[in-house]
Amino acid sequence: MIAINSKILTESVLLKFPYEPTPDQRHFMEQFSDFLFSGAKNEIMLVKGYAGTGKTTLVATLVQVLRALNRGFVLLAPTGRAAKVLSQYSGFPASTIHRKIYRKLLSPSGLAEFVRDRNLHTDTVFIVDEASMIGETNRDVSLFGSGNLLSDLISYVYGGQNCRLVLMGDTAQLPPVGLRVSPALQPEVLQRFGLSVRNVMLTEVLRQASGSGILSFATSLRNMLEREEYGKPVFERDWFSDIALIAPAEVPEHIEQEYRKQGMENVIVICRSNRQSNRYNAGIRRQILFREEELSSGDVMMVVKNDYFWLAEGEAMGFIANGDILRLKRIRRYDELYGFHFADASVVFPDYNDLESDVKLLLDTITAEAPSLPADKQKELMQAILQEYDMASGKKIQDYLHTNPWFNAIQVKFAYAVTCHKAQGGQWHTVFIDPGRQDEYDREYIRWLYTAVTRGTDKVYLVSY
After folding, report:
1. How far apart are CA 119 and CA 162, in angstroms?
2. Residue 201 bridge partners (DSSP)
3. Cα dihedral angle (204, 206, 207, 212), rounded to 10 degrees?
4. Contact 349, 318 (CB under 8 A)
5. Which of 154, 250, 318, 360 could form a disulfide with 246, with the two C-beta atoms 3.0–4.6 Å apart?
6. Which superfamily, per CATH, for 211-465?
7. How many CA atoms lie within 13 Å of 109's alpha carbon, on the beta-carbon side?
8. pLDDT (0 to 100) of residue 351
9. Chain CA centroid to CA 327, Å
């Protein structure tokens, strides 16, 4: 390993950085370098920055320098989509937190459980992007480690020899579902783990971003949040070409144009509710894609509940997570059983090097107005399946259910239009935002709109705004 110190690292990053750094960015470089070489064993670095302040450019430059200096680093994000974005802008592989820190164990009956793995890295800095999405509760508490994702992440990282953790996020974005703030971005929460927190805040919007209507609007929304001055956000729409207001009747034509221009995978519609996204998905498939069948080859869908059944043991993807995107390659057969609709299909996961898998899909969730199959329907399916359970088999009921392909059918929705929480962590060239009818412009709404607007990189359309 090349003998380097904090001063050499800072100078190397400055030389590599593509722009004249802002004072905030220079402060970040100095603080990161000092953090890496401080020798403090229980220190964590928290980097908070708004859209347009250059977080992505900083990380991309930083990891290039770390690689050139032979210094170890690991890039992580909360979701597969966020990890793919991180990998694209950094130029290095990135993984989801779950797939990095947990190890899958199978009971003799085939029941999956994920335990916190050992950190075998040495002298490594773990950089986690989109940390605003990290909650203190795992998506399936009973299956993942201690049930506390933030705690497990910290324990994993600091269980390695001379390893350190950097959490990066945007406090203006939506917090995890059901929470008012993002725990991973709160210094007082991190201090409860016995860590001293090194805080860095990026607030200055870059000059090269000043010509962007998307970032101009995002900045005005962020200013509203900081000042706690709420009301209907306004912006000078005639000054910018990358943000536009359109009427509902214009939406199909613009979506079709953007599909042709950017490619369907680079366009998304963001809605306020599952009911609204269901309507958009149905309209897009019927009016733009001319797909009348229940499912068609090429359909893009989103997984809406974790699934641990279908991937082969040892697959790098680990498990199929809530929020993962899949593309239908072939539909082999449909079934109606237990009062529910299913399809056997071959699917591809585009965020995981086009991994292909044969799976069973549960189709009832496509039109459900809940995020996934409602609890009463889940119970109805379980009870119907258990009618075939044979006590004489000696198999425990739980083991029987967790190895039953019908009970473990992947719950999906179409992914041409999604809610903002489902879009969080992702980026698309073109984003259509339909906030629906809005009577109150409170803090929750402004954060929702800020998160939605900052998903777009090239063009944002505001519908009925």
Report:
1. 11
2. 48
3. -110
4. no
5. 250
6. P-loop containing nucleotide triphosphate hydrolases (3.40.50.300)
7. 14
8. 86
9. 18
